Amino acid sequence: MTDDQGARRAAPATPANQRALDHVRELVRGDRRRHLARISRVLAGHGLDADPRSLCGALARAPVTVNFHADRLLPDGRTVAEALTGDGLYRSQFESGISSGALAAHAGGGRD
Fold first, then answer.
1. Contact at 8 Å (CB) between 63 and 55?
2. What is the pTM (predicted TM-score) of this model?
3. What is the pLDDT tens value at each position of the chain, 112 positions in all?
4. The dihedral of CA 44, 47, 49, 52: what is its sign?
5. Is 21 helix (H, G, I), strand (E, B) or coil?
6. CA separation, residue 50 to residues 34, 37, 61, 68 (Å)
């Protein structure tokens, strides 16, 4: 994000958000040794050490899978593929307004 775009501030976590975060943290803690070993193997495979700059460099070159429905129509009438190629940005379902699931990620919504 550039300075002229301004920083977005996250809304305070709802109780449901907090439960979800706590759940993920607990899962990670339970497998921490396995995850750290995997990170070490990935870094070692690139000749990198545990330096944060090295880690960021390795992550910047990591393969990523992007999933989307290219033919879905956005509110502006463009397809997802047209918007992706025209804007050069991959937008979340909350930015695009389209989803294969529920967009209601708020207290009392379908994902609460």
1. no
2. 0.40
3. 333 344 445 567 778 878 888 888 888 888 888 877 887 777 776 666 666 666 777 777 777 777 788 899 998 999 999 998 998 888 888 788 887 766 666 667 665 5
4. negative
5. helix
6. 16, 12, 16, 34
What per-residue confidence (pLDDT) applies to 30?
A: 84
Q: Please tell me the distance from the alpha carbon of residue 77 to that of residue 109, in angstroms, as a whole number.
A: 27
What is the sign, positive or negative, of the torsion defined by CA atoms of 70, 76, 82, 87?
A: negative
Both structure tokens of 72: 């879905």
The DSSP code for 77 is S
Distance between CA atoms of 61 and 39, rounded to whole angstroms?
A: 14
Pairwise CA distance, residues 58 & 90, whole Å: 21
Rounded-to-10 torsion of CA 66, 68, 74, 78: 80
What is the residue type of 87?
Answer: D
Greatest Cα pair distance in the chain: 48
The Cα 104–Cα 94 span in angstroms is 9
> Among all chains, which residue has been given the structure tokens 């047209």?
82
